[in-house]
Amino acid sequence: MVRIVSAAAGLVLLSFVLLLATRDGGNGRQSKSPLIGELVPHVEGVRFDGESFDVDEVTSGWVLINFFASWCVPCVREHPELVEWNRRHRLDGVVISVPFGDTEKDARAFFVEHGGNWPVLIDNESAWAVAFGVLRPPESFLVAPGGVVVAKWQGQITADEVDRVVVDLQERNATS
Amino acid sequence: MRRYQRISWLLILIVVAAALVASVVAEDGPATQGERAYEIKSTMLCPVCDGQNVLESNAPVAAAIRSQVDDLVAEGRSDGEIRAWMARQYGSDVNANPPRSGVGALVWILPVLAGVMAVGLLILAFGRWRSGREIEPSEDDIRIVQALREKN
Fold this sequence. Notes:
The complex is a heterodimer of chains A (176) and B (152).
Chain A: H1 2-22, E1 44-47, E2 52-54, E3 62-68, H2 73-88, E4 93-99, H3 104-114, E5 121-122, H4 127-131, E6 139-143, E7 149-154, H5 159-175
Parallel strand pairs in A: 3-4
Antiparallel strand pairs in A: 1-2, 1-5, 3-6, 6-7
Chain B: H1 2-25, H2 33-42, H3 60-74, H4 79-90, H5 106-133, H6 139-151
């Protein structure tokens, strides 16, 4: 009887060890996202200029969705790169900026100071941030023409880095 | 008589175990929207903090989750739907309480079963201990003891 109970307790302990050893680790800086390969979350919003915004209206081209905060130093550093990417893709793409963990007033001041003539959304209810699973700014998502999310970056990005993904996908589409 | 006693104890243990398992697995009753939202937020971990729930944390992502939980509760989403949505967005570790179904349910059930088994083993051990005390010494035992006493 005691042997059976000991064996059962041993099996339970072993299954716990196996369960803990084979599960995913804790969250850190993620480079993957459950959104990659999925259609961009359908979240509507309101732009700084008061116009309503629907992401489906712009998914005929490339869309670079950037979550930023005015207090975030990497966001300040990457902003000229977003300006550059927007310039390169003025005919086939658009940048969408979404303040995250920031006040609307400070986010507006950020754009006045650093420039950028693309839609900036008001996300007071954090619907965009949660729909994209944003952890901390800056985070960026690239959406291919057609509306599928193809890449996610955590941290500061460059226009070249984003374009490497764009070119890679364009080449893959050309050969297939 | 002793056999019936053991069966009675076993039945009591089974009933207690079943009641405890049912109490941890069963869903709570309905609550107000505010209570529901508070309960969800207090058992949802901030994904970028060390062990803080989203109620305690000042991180932007915690504020975002709080805001969305309020919205989703107001929309009439169930607790399960909200937890599943947040787990999809931020990983299953965002839920401080393990799920009550699937493998995660073992975390709730196993401690109860372990407790019941421990009590059962104690009862068995006490039973043996008590029955051991009732063993009468054999004639040989008595003879050996008497011989030793006479020797001394």
